[in-house]
Amino acid sequence: MGTQFIALSRRVFLVAGAAAAAVACAPVAGSSAALAVYKTPTCACCTAWVDHMRAAGFEAQVNELPSLRSIRSTQGVPEALASCHTAMIGGYVLEGHVPAEDVRRLLAERPEAVGLAVPAMPLGSPGMETPDNQREPYETLLILKGGGTRVFARHGQAAT
For residues 41 and 28, what is the distance between their CA atoms, to the nearest angstrom? Predict the structure, then answer.
């Protein structure tokens, strides 16, 4: 069984790497709505985020993997920004519960960046809604090519 596990793990890693490379090398279309989503099989909030993106007009293809670490690593997402799912669209990576409006803005502005991240799964973000409508303020971060970040958008902030 140990040998089968190692072979399976290696196979999963190779398939995930090949899929990430294929997405990264695909032609970039600024108006593309095709979204490749990578999630673990048991994550319900990831499914809710995919529903949010589909409702906003994105065409999501969901890929389930036992671990997302290799996807994040090959796409340049710092481990400190890791969340429960990773997606790719138009040459960018999306980490976590990024709102569809932020993705549209990213694709329209096309900044020199790796992509967007909403770390820590904040309550009230897309896919993290609660029955009592609890909301935490949160920021969508732009992941810069050197691994740094800057605030791309703020959500749920009190008006000043």
Answer: 28
Q: In whole angstroms, what is the distance from residue 23 CA to residue 103 CA?
A: 17
pLDDT digits (tens, 9 = 90+) for 91-141: 999 999 999 999 999 999 999 999 999 999 999 999 999 999 999 999 999
Per DSSP, the residues of the chain read -HHHHHHHHHHHHHHHHHHHHHHHHSPP-TT--EEEEEE-TT-HHHHHHHHHHHHTT-EEEEEE-S--HHHHHHHT--GGG--SEEEEETTEEEEES--HHHHHHHHHH--SSSEEEETT--TTSTT---TT-----EEEEEEPTTS-EEEEEEESPPP-
Taking the CB of residue 44, how many other CB atoms lie within 10 A of it?
10
Model confidence pLDDT, tens digit, residues 52-70:
999 999 999 999 999 899 9
